[in-house]
Structure formats: structure tokens, C-alpha cells
Amino acid sequence: MKFFIDTANLQEIRESAELGILDGVTTNPTLLSREAGDPFENLKKICEVVSGPVSAEVIATDVKGMVREAHELVRIAENIVIKLPTTKEGVKACKILSSEGVQVNMTLVFSAAQAVLVARAGAAFVSPFVGRIDDVSSDGMRLIEQIVQIYGNYGFETEILVASVRHPMHVVQAALMGADICTIPYKVILQLFKHPLTDVGIERFLSDWKKIRR
Ligand code: G3P
Q1: Does residue 163's CB lie within 6 angstroms of at least one atom of ligand 1?
Q2: In terms of residue numbers, what domain contains 90?
Q3: Rg, C-alpha atoms of the chain
Q4: Which protein residue has the closest C-alpha to ligand 1 atom 8?
Q5: Tens-digit pLDDT profile for residues 26-50
Q6: Half-sphere exposure of residue 83, counting CA atoms within 13 Å on the CB side?
Q7: Residue 131: CB within 6 Å of ligand 1?
Q8: Of 6, 17, 157, 169, which is most buried, counting CB atoms within 10 Å of its CB?
Q9: Which atom of ligand 1 lies nearest, measured to the CA of 135?
Q10: How far is CA 133 from the centre of its chain?
Q11: What is the CATH number of the domain that holds 133?
Q12: What is the per-residue pLDDT for 210?
């Protein structure tokens, strides 16, 4: 399973890239709004740090506007992926852009029906929001299970990008289910490294070693 980071913060992206396990970045208007400076300049800098796909989302809600914005965004860098909302207009724009060879990430996916639609429209990535489904007392990871099964049934090539990840168990479950990618906030990436027994084990090895090497 590939690891993307879900942030527009350059420092977090740099630090994750240094770990050697970063495959891409997902941004959205909310994440970009949290950073100082011009969002387009910030996207450009992100694309210089990471060679993998960097998702940039359109603001328009109509097909024409989405396609126009997408054409502007792809000029930022070769690794820009266009993020579109999963609406009727978004699916139409996805078909147009993917036919032109533009990579599209269909976002705000909350149902298996939406996942089928975006795969049929040629999306390169589908982004189901698991945390937000959990937030409304439903099971976000059940949706991932369904999409993995449906895409497997038909050999759809759209990559399943698990989004709205809130804790390490979302990542573990996504891997167990065979999702292609998890996009993970920086805080959760750091949590993945932690295990109390690892810390205790290191302490014990070091103190035992000190007994024989004074
Ligand atoms: O990639 C989508 C993600 O940014 C949404 O996460 O935590 O706002 O539901 P969240």
C-alpha cells in the first residue's frame, strides 16, 4: 500500500519525504487555507519536494469551470492530479479530463455507488472519506471493503485512495482490505511508528549493554 500525506504544510511534507516512504500528497481548499502565502505558489513548492502525485482541487461546481480550472492547475507541475467533487458535474468533468490524459482524483466519495460512477468515468483515484463516515455513526472502513470488492469484480484500474484517515487503525484496516493508497495526516504518520514495547525494548538493550561495556 502506498503512503500519501494529507496536508499542504511544506515542513510536514519535507519531513515525511525524508522518511523515505512518501509516495504522494493530497491537498484540498481547507488544507491550503491553513498555510501562509499564495496557494498556487505553495502547490508548486510541494511538487518540487515530492515527485509522486500531488492532488489539487478545483473550486468551480460546473463542468466548464472545473475543466477550465483543471487546465490551469496542470500547468503548475507535471505531477499535479486534479481533484474534483463527486457530483453529476464532477463526473462529467472527470470523463472529459481523463479522456485528455489528465489524472483525476474524485473526492468526497461516501458511497459504493459513487465509487462505481467515478471508475466508469476514468478516474485515476477514488477518495472515500472514512473518518467523516465514522463521524456520523456509520462504518467508513466497510465502504473500503465494498469498493475493493466491486473494483476487483470488474478489473477497474482506478486506485482506491483512503482519505479522511484519523488514526493508525484506519491505516492497518486499509492495508488488510487491499486498498491501494492511504492519505494520512502527519500526526497519524508519526503515530504509526510508536509502540511502547519498542521503547521499553531499546531501553533494556541499552542498559544491558552498559553493564558489559563500561
Ligand atoms: O483527504 C481528505 C481529508 O483531508 C479530509 O479529512 O479529517 O477533514 O475529514 P477530514
Answers
A1: yes
A2: 2-212
A3: 19
A4: 164
A5: 999 999 999 999 999 999 999 999 9
A6: 18
A7: yes
A8: 6
A9: 9
A10: 16
A11: 3.20.20.70
A12: 94
Kindly give the parts of the chain with pLDDT less than 70: 214
Beta carbon of 6 within 6 Å of any ligand 1 atom: yes
C-alpha cell of residue 208:
544491558
Q: How many domains does the chain have?
A: 1
83 in catalytic set: yes
* SS3 state of residue 2: strand
Q: Is 188 in the pocket of ligand 1 (CB under 6 A)?
A: no
Looking at ligand 1, which atom is closest to the CA of residue 31? 4
CA of 47 to the centre of ligand 1 (A): 20
List helix spans (H) across the chain. Answer: 10-18, 29-33, 39-49, 63-73, 88-99, 112-120, 130-135, 140-154, 168-177, 186-193, 196-212
pLDDT number for residue 213: 81
The catalytically annotated residue of 83, 88, 194, 211 is 83
How many Å lie between the centroid of ligand 1 and the Cα of residue 189? 14
